[in-house]
Amino acid sequence: MRKIQFFDTTLRDGEQTVGVNFSITEKVQIAKQLERWGVDVIEAGFPIASPNDFKCVEAISKNIKHAQVTGLARMTFKDIDACTAATKDAANKQIHVFIATSPVHREAKLHMTKEQVLHEIDEKVRYAKKFFDIVQFSPEDATRTEMDYLIQACQTAIDAGATVVNIADTVGYSNPEEFGHIFDELIAKIPNSNRVTFSAHCHNDLGMATANAMAAIKHGAGRVEGTINGIGERAGNTALEEVAAQMYVRKDYYQCENNINMAETKKISDMVSEFSEISIPKNKAVIGPFSFSHESGIHQDGFLKNHATYEILTPETVGMHHSQMPLGKLSGSHAVMARLNQMGYKVTREDMRAIFPAFKAIADTVDLVSEKDLKNIMENKPTEMIK
Ligand code: KIV
Ligand code: ZN
Questions:
Q1: pLDDT band at residue 321 using 50, 70 and 90 as cut-offs
Q2: Which ligand 1 atom lies nearest to the CA of residue 142?
Q3: How many distinct structural domains can be found in the chain?
């Protein structure tokens, strides 16, 4: 089975979320938990961006033992030098160099011709290669780049020594079919494509980041990039915990493995949420508390008979405690009876005939029926139950 590498950029692209600014201590703590979670590469920051970013990459390089540590660099000598210096103590390291390749970026932002961009790629990848065995090249805004030119840019990087080519859907423009096709084309048309690892870096502007990343994996990507809880610039990045869960639940479909330790998922998610001060939406896939809650009567009844009826992933798998069955107006008598018995009452199906109408009367007036409400019902026993 192919092994997919997880490249986490919570500390770099994730920190580009509006208002997020991790301290060095927080970054080191997150990096350590990312390592426990099992990521292969940690993008620790953008060393040239600020003295603090430099220090963070340096500190993480000193503290991480197994995962590769990387910093981001534009195609400039000073960026590459800063990255080299910041990662010098890392046990395992790589560099991530990028330049935009799409027409709008070339013309409006870089003011460069196609040839000038190719020249930069060739020169700076060769330079980076002097200091790093593993050089990742990212064509920024790859998904809005002319296909022929994207192939040329990637070919130039590979010929200059790049070992990873990371296709960036910088503005979340692509869709799974189109994104998968880009990987097919690159793999088919680059003669030495088997010498490199292709990687996917997706943004979530149109809500497609995880779907696009999964399409890339299906179409030959050997590395996936993203952030914890999907934080990142604008609408964020691919949420890596979603990728891990997809690969876990649908191994039959993806036929790939990874190094992720699923039971550590909730811990890393909570830590990033706490330090970024961005709460996890209640209905967030995989790690939101509602992901394992069942409210309607039909679902609760099925779930009580066999959890697999309504859960394809168990909360325990991702390090959460247990599923929940909140009681509301759509809940059924089986779930109410189960909860009462959990609370220590010995309630039979017969008793429920009297209890359930009392429960419904309350459920109609509140969002959720609490254990206190249930206790009240039982303390003022419905008349039919008084023997
Ligand atoms: O979104 C993007 O294009 C990036 C690159 C630096 C890979 O984050
Ligand atoms: Zn990005």
A1: confident
A2: 3
A3: 2
